[in-house]
Amino acid sequence: MMDMLAATEALARRLTDDVPVVASLGNPGLNLYNAQPGRARNFYFRNAMGAACSLALGLATARPGQRVVLLDGDGSLLMNLSSLASEGWRGPRNLVHVCWDNRMYEMTGKQPTATAGPADLAAMAEGAGFPHVARVETLAAFESAIERALAEEGPWFILALVTGERARRDPDGPKSPTAIRHRFQPELGG
Amino acid sequence: MDWPHTIVSVLKQYQVKHVNYLPDAMGERLLKLMREDPDFDLLPLAREEEGVGVVCGQSLGGKRGVLLCPTSGIGNSLNALASLPIPYRIPVPMIIGFRGDLGEFNSTQVMMGQALPDIFRAMRIPFYELKREDEVAVLTEGFLRICYATESPAALLITTQLAGWKE
Prior knowledge:
The complex is a heterodimer.
Chain A: H1 4-13, E1 21-23, H2 27-35, E2 42-44, H3 52-62, E3 68-73, H4 74-79, H5 82-90, E4 95-101, E5 104-105, E6 111-112, H6 121-128, E7 132-136, H7 139-151, E8 156-161, H8 177-184
Parallel strand pairs in A: 1-2, 1-3, 3-4, 4-8, 7-8
Antiparallel strand pairs in A: 5-6
Helix pairs in contact in A: 1-2, 1-7, 5-6
Chain B: H1 3-13, E1 16-21, H2 25-35, E2 41-44, H3 48-60, E3 64-70, H4 71-75, H5 78-83, H6 85-88, E4 92-97, H7 110-122, E5 127-130, H8 136-150, E6 153-158, H9 160-163
Helix pairs in contact in B: 1-2, 1-8
C-alpha cells in the first residue's frame, strides 16, 4: 500500500510541462496541488463527482497527439462506471487513467466503498476493453507502471492501492472554478 | 433543406466537430447524416452525464463538441451541469430530442418532459424549441451563439411538432 501524495509526487517528477493532468475532487486534487502547486496544466474538480474521467476522455479525444493524465478515485469512478465502458470502447491511445483506490469515501468520514468489498476496478477496466491495465500496490510498482504509460501507447488504466490519509488542504490552493479553467486552458497550446 | 440537414449544416458552419451522444429516434435523424460526413467525429456514450464532462474536455482541448440525447438524459446530467460547465464557464451545447410532450404515447416520459423547461429556467440555461421548419436555421445558429458567448450550457429542443411523434 502506498501513500497517495508520495505517488503523486513520483508522477509529477516524470511529467513534462505540456501534459494536461485532470484531478477528481477531494484527495486526488488536493495531493496534486500539494505535489505541484505552481503547475498550470492541472485541472482541479471541485464537485461534479464522477465527471473527471469523462472530461479526460473529451480532452484526449480533442487532442489525440497529446498525452492526457487523469487522477481519479475509487468513489468517483464507482459513481460513473459507465464512463469506463465509453473509454474502453473509444480507446484513446493518449489516455492514462490513474485510479487511486483507498477503498473508502475518505473526505466524508472514511465510509467504505464497494472496493472495500468484492469490487475490482482493474478487472472492470479489463472488461471494458482497456488494452493495458496495471494493478499496483507499492510505490516502486506504480513508478514503473506510470513510466510505461507515459511512454507507450494506451489507453492505460492504473489502479493504485493507497492508504487512507487525508490530504493537506493548502489555504492557497485552487478555489475559483473560472480561475482554474483560465489557468489551464491557454496553456494547452498546439 | 429539411430540419436534419439544416441543423447539420449550421453545426458545420460553427466548426462543431465532436458529437457525443445517446441515441433516440429524433437524434438518429441527425446521426444518420453525421455518420456519412468526415467533418464529424461521433462518440457513443453509455450515460448522458458522461457527455457533459466529455464536451467540457473537448472545449478545454480547443475543440467544439455537442451533447445529443433525449429528454430523460438531461435528468441524468443535472449535477454535472450545475457543478462543472456552469461554475467553470465552459460552453456545452445540448441538442435534445424532446420527449414527454405533444403526442407522447408513453406516460412515463411525461413528467421529465413537462419538468424540463422549468428545470432549465431554474438553472438559467437558455433553451429554444424547434417547432417549425422555417425557424430551424435561426434557432440553431442563435442557440450556438449564446452558448459560446456565455461560455455556458444552452439547449436546443427538437419537438414532435417538427419531427413527428412516435407511434
